[in-house]
Design a protein that fits this description.
The complex is a heterotrimer.
Chain A (H helix, E strand, L loop, with lengths): L2 H30 L7 H19 L2 H25 L4 H19 L25 H5 L4 H19 L1 H11 L1 H7 L3 H27 L11 H11 L4 H24 L6 H21 L21
Helix pairs in contact in A: 1-6, 1-9, 1-10, 1-11, 2-3, 2-4, 2-9, 2-10, 3-4, 3-9, 6-7, 6-11, 7-8, 10-11, 11-12
Chain B lengths: L1 H20 L11 E5 L9 H16 L4 E5 L6 H12 L2 E6 L5 H10 L4 E5 L8 E6 L1 H15 L4 E6 L4 H17 L4 E6 L6 H13 L4 E4 L5 H9 L2 E4 L12 E7 L2 H13 L6 E4 L6 E3 L8 H16 L9 E2 L5 E3 L7 H5 L8 E2 L1
Parallel strand pairs in B: 1-2, 1-3, 3-4, 4-5, 5-11, 6-7, 6-8, 7-15, 8-9, 9-10
Antiparallel strand pairs in B: 10-12, 13-14
Helix pairs in contact in B: 2-9, 3-4, 5-6, 5-10, 7-8
Chain C lengths: L1 E6 L5 H26 L3 H10 L5 H26 L7 H18 L8 H27 L3 H21 L33 H19 L1 H11 L1 H6 L4 H28 L10 H11 L4 H25 L3 H23 E6 L13
Antiparallel strand pairs in C: 1-2
Helix pairs in contact in C: 1-2, 1-13, 2-12, 3-7, 3-8, 3-10, 3-11, 3-12, 4-5, 4-6, 4-10, 4-11, 5-6, 5-10, 7-8, 7-12, 11-12, 12-13
Classes of the chains: A mainly alpha, B alpha/beta, C mainly alpha.
Chain lengths: 309, 358, 364
């Protein structure tokens, strides 16, 4: 494999991992606060359509990206009210949110199918972006790709080092204790859920603005579920979300590449299984090695909490 | 209140069906109702959308004389039979089942409702009240292949394909045969994405093919994502289902357009006239069920001339895209010189011609 | 004056039964406004959605056909959820069950004999169990989280099905389309009411749910499962093996999903096709929680969710609502049903105004 093939391949991997990364990072924060929101797919779709609609109507990509995030957050607010204020079951509410989001996005998108928008502009640093290898590999993505990459260390730092992150983790690990020390568990979880919604919305916006700048119904095609699996895969750690997104995106793109190269005489469906199997195998290896025991979910994940006031 | 409306609608529908059956002698108070069942959302801008355009054409043409309605996003499988049954029971006179996976469920319902006409797209079984229709998309692909052979500098096309069903295999083959008539060294490389519809994955496949050197992209998947990718990477591409020029203003060479409207109008007319009979049709360029989008800027005058010739030849019946000699990918002769395969052979095609890397 | 929320000392029985119908009525009210704004005829749409499917024998039969796989799968999943075992891959287990049961059907195609159908069921149960055994094994032996493995195996299962129906199991007379042969009469579930699609599997599903209720509420195993979920530490102290519970609940849910898969292919579908489930394995998760993880509740929840699908299609057919709207209505219905649970467990009190700040801590 020569550089002329390898570099575009790697660029494709980074791009295809971005929507997964954005959504999974958001979900990670949600889950670290002790809340399980399975509605990622729905929030991504609503984010995608709102971003696309805003782009079509205003022509401003900044507004479009913000609209995607806001739409995702707005939908997650519904989830928040139901599960945090009304203590509804989180798993079922999240799944219902996906059904709702698919319908809502299709309804909003009725007038927007079949019209392309210009893709998000890519970075173009004079001189740097044109460098032989590094230029293509590092300096020619759009803003959301860099945002995803920056959010990884930012969230890692936030959870590990910041006071707010510590509180968030405490809420996720021991809600009753956090409550009795005087933290407002519900409020903190609301913020986490809103953040997760906004990140899912951004993941959707990336699809409809940058990856394939168009709107068609159900265009996320199951990426929300993969993002959810990545959080588990990553054992609730941000850097591993990045690694998982690249692994999954990488294997997906690689299997398409291998098919095209015609070097593996197996049915295409076998190759299509590879990303899923690879994820299981890698997680299994990680779980059985030295990291065993550090892969536990936040203790309060999915459990309802209601302070008796 | 809702109850009354519903029952009235039901009775009127049944009456309309009866009138239609009796040969449409009387103009009933309520016109016959036609149901359309789509496998995807109307907003897929692909397969289902084109059928929806056909429905709208029927409504526009017949105005008050028919009522049409559709059900979208009906999964192939157990749900579809229920929907057909609901449509038949609610008084539809004719039901268009627009996906292959609907064939067996629709036929089961057709047996129970002998007075309701069924039109099943891309199936292969018929009943006295269930007709079958399909389009010779391969004819359009032959024209595309001719253009690809002429404009591709590398003689290398990347083909984004959903599933290895005969329809898709036939298209790849017709495309490649035609391209190799122009450029004998032409190759087609297929990537199976194992989905009809996942814009991201379709784009990934197109990128991968372009990275491997393809300078023309063809697709059999439904979204415009591959076209967009071709546009942004500066290579040519062929659109699928509908004119995708908006997504690839300079990339699109032409597009295969599924135009179901003439057939839907024809069958509705037959229903209204009382002349509807079961049949099994496979229309193509000649009948207008397959159309080609206007040629894009990348089509050279020479390519255009060659393409027009192929198209006209197919329409006149002087040119058969699969006319022998045709070898398979391993070089064995599959179609003898001077002959061409039967429709049955085409409809069951599961081998690739020379020049295809599957 | 402010409204205070209080946890009820005991769950309110009347509200337990009253809230679901209330939620449906509330959904209808919200939708009435929604449809009116969208310019549709709200009464007609709501009637088509919620009532029309219930008024005919055929409609009720369809309700049973749609609810049966949901109930069967949800019953199995609920046992796992109670024990904190998160099998979210029932969709894949259903697919494997359909593959194994369908494989038996194809192997003995067109042969007479009443033994074929039971053998298909057995094969399907085994298939589902095998597919569930993988995450169970990885969880118990290697500590791998079953959410990820069971979900990922769902995709693998559907691709595996595709390999079979695009390849060796393709109908030889089927024009190379990706479908198996239609199963022969001895391989098809008997229809209970002629003219409808109500098959034997619907009754079996009902019996399974009742049996599961007995197991969960009356047996030692049921007690262990409930204890493991409510008080894991106490359960461990009492000597209940966690590994054993993971195995039992995973295999039970996998086996039931597999059986549901056989019932689908031997019932309404009648052959193997690449898209044999419209997401039953995932929808069943909602059904399980909507039924409050109780097998009898799950029967009702399965019927309500089935109605929302059938009603959605019916509203498209009769009232011309786009599929998007029906998704929206379905989402709303589920939201309100889930939210209505709140009234069962909490009550609102109008309290006198306070001068002190909000209480942070509660008397425990």
């Amino acid at each position: 494999m020569t550089a002329s093939v390898l570099i575009p391949l790697l660029v494709t991997v980074v791009n295809s991992a971005t929507p997964l990364l954005l959504a999974a990072l958001g979900e990670l924060v949600v889950e670290r606060s002790g809340v399980l929101n399975l509605g990622i797919e729905g929030m991504m779709l609503v984010g995608a359509v709102c971003a696309f609609a805003t782009m079509t109507l205003t022509g401003s990509d900044t507004l479009a990206v913000l609209a995607g995030a806001a739409a995702g957050a707005a939908l997650s607010l519904v989830f928040g009210v139901l599960t945090l204020t009304l203590v509804a079951n989180q798993v079922a509410t999240g799944l219902a949110l996906t059904i709702f989001g698919i319908g809502l996005s299709a309804l909003i998108g009725k007038g927007f199918t079949g019209h392309p928008v210009p893709a998000l502009p890519r970075l173009s640093l004079h001189g740097v972006s044109d460098l032989p290898v590094a230029g293509a590999l590092l300096f020619r993505y759009d803003a959301l790709v860099y945002f995803g990459l920056l959010m990884t260390p930012a969230i890692a730092w936030f959870l590990a080092r910041s006071r707010a992150g510590l509180i968030l983790r405490a809420v996720g690990e021991a809600d009753l204790s956090a409550h009795s020390i005087g933290y407002d568990v519900i409020r903190i979880r609301y913020l986490a859920v809103l953040f997760g919604g906004a990140m899912s919305g951004l993941g959707g916006a990336y699809l409809s603005l940058a990856y394939t700048p168009l709107w068609v119904e159900d265009m996320t095609a199951g990426r929300g579920w993969i993002a959810l699996a990545l959080v588990v895969f990553a054992a609730w750690r941000p850097w591993r979300v990045l690694a998982g997104a690249w692994l999954f995106g990488g294997v997906t793109v690689l299997q398409l590449f291998l098919q095209g190269s015609g070097r593996l005489p197996v049915p295409s469906q076998v190759l299509a299984m590879v990303p899923y199997l690879a994820t299981i195998i890698v997680l299994t290896i990680m779980s059985s090695g030295a990291l065993r025991g550090r892969l536990e979910a936040p203790a309060c994940l999915g459990k309802p909490f209601r302070p008796a006031s | 209140m809702g109850c009354n409306i519903d029952r009235r609608g039901f009775l009127a529908g049944t009456a309309a069906a009866a009138v239609a059956l009796a040969g449409g002698r009387a103009r009933a108070a309520s016109p016959p109702s036609l149901g359309f069942v789509y496998v995807g959302p109307v907003g897929d801008f692909g397969w289902s959308y084109q059928h929806e355009l056909g429905r709208r054409a029927v409504q526009a043409k017949f105005g008050d004389k028919v009522k049409t309605h559709y059900v979208e996003n009906v999964a192939e499988g157990p749900d579809s039979e229920r929907v057909f049954r609901q449509l038949a029971a609610s008084g539809d006179a004719m039901i268009f089942a627009t996906s292959f996976g609907y064939m067996n469920p629709a036929l089961r319902v057709a047996q129970q409702f002998p007075n309701v006409k069924f039109e099943i797209a891309t199936g292969y079984k018929t009943l006295p009240n269930a007709a079958e229709y399909n389009a010779r998309f391969y004819q359009g692909r032959a024209v595309c292949g001719t253009i690809a052979g002429a404009v591709s500098k590398k003689g290398f096309c990347g083909y984004v394909a959903p599933f290895p069903i005969p329809e898709v295999v036939m298209g790849v083959n017709a495309f490649t045969i035609a391209a190799r008539k122009v450029n004998p060294n032409f190759r087609t490389k297929i990537i199976w994405v194992n989905t009809w519809f996942d814009p991201g994955k379709e784009a990934d496949a197109a990128k991968s093919l372009i990275d491997q050197g393809a300078d023309v992209i063809a697709q059999h998947t439904d979204s415009p994502a591959a076209m967009q990718t071709a546009q942004s990477r500066g290579v040519y591409a062929f659109g699928q289902d509908s004119d995708m020029r908006k997504f690839g203003p300079t990339a699109q060479l032409t597009a295969i357009i599924n135009n179901w409207a003439p057939y839907y109008v024809e069958r509705t007319q037959a229903l209204l006239d009382g002349t509807w009979k079961t049949q099994s049709v496979w229309y193509g360029l000649k009948e207008g069920m397959v159309e080609l989008a206007p040629f894009g800027p990348g089509v050279t005058p020479a390519a255009q001339q060659a393409a027009d010739k192929v198209k006209q030849g197919i329409i006149d019946g002087t040119l058969y895209p699969f006319e022998g000699p045709v070898n398979d990918a391993k070089g064995a002769l599959k179609v003898a010189a001077g002959t061409h395969p039967s429709d049955h052979d085409l409809l069951t095609m599961n081998w690739y011609v020379e020049g295809v890397q599957a | 004056m402010r409204i205070r929320i209080e946890r009820r000392p005991i769950v309110s029985r009347p509200l337990l039964y009253l809230t679901p119908p209330l939620a449906v009525v509330a959904t209808m009210l919200v939708c009435f406004g929604l449809f009116a704004v969208m310019g549709d005829n709200p009464a007609r749409s709501l009637y088509a959605f919620f009532i029309a499917p219930l008024l005919s024998g055929n409609g009720l039969a369809e309700l049973g056909v749609k609810a049966a796989p949901l109930v069967m799968i949800a019953v199995g999943l609920a046992a796992g959820f109670r024990a904190n075992v998160w099998n979210i891959g029932a969709e894949g287990q259903l697919t494997l069950g359909a593959i194994c049961g369908g494989g038996v059907a194809l192997a003995f195609w067109n042969q007479p004999g009443g033994w074929i159908l039971p053998l298909m069921c057995l094969a399907g149960i085994l298939g589902g169990m095998i597919w569930a055994a993988i995450p169970a094994f990885l969880r118990v032996v290697l500590g791998v989280n079953e959410i990820l493995t069971s979900l990922m195996l769902t995709y693998v299962a559907s691709l595996f099905l595709a390999i079979l129906v695009y390849g060796p199991w393709k109908d030889p007379e089927g024009f190379n389309y990706p479908q198996s042969r239609m199963f022969s009469p001895a391989e098809t579930l008997p229809i209970l009411i002629p003219g409808t699609r109500l098959h034997l599997g619907v009754v079996v599903a009902l019996l399974i749910a009742i049996a599961a209720w007995l197991v969960m509420s009356r047996s030692m195993l049921g007690f262990q499962i409930r204890a493991a979920g409510l008080a894991p530490a106490a359960a461990r102290y009492a000597g209940f093996s966690r590994a054993r519970l993971v195995w039992i609940t995973m295999l039970a849910s996998g086996g039931l999903a597999g059986l549901a898969g056989v019932f689908e292919v031997a019932g309404p579908i009648g052959q193997l096709i690449p898209t044999l489930t419209p997401g039953y394995g995932f929808t069943a998760i909602i059904v399980a929680f909507l039924g409050r993880l109780d097998p009898l509740g799950i029967i009702l929840a399965g019927l309500v969710v089935a109605l929302s699908y059938i009603g959605g299609d019916n509203a498209q057919v009769v009232a011309g609502l786009p599929a998007a709207t029906t998704g929206l209505v379905q989402g709303l219905l589920l939201f309100l049903l889930l939210a209505s649970d709140f009234l069962v467990r909490y009550r609102l009190r109008i309290a006198a105004p306070r001068t002190t700040p909000l209480p942070v801590k509660a008397p425990a």
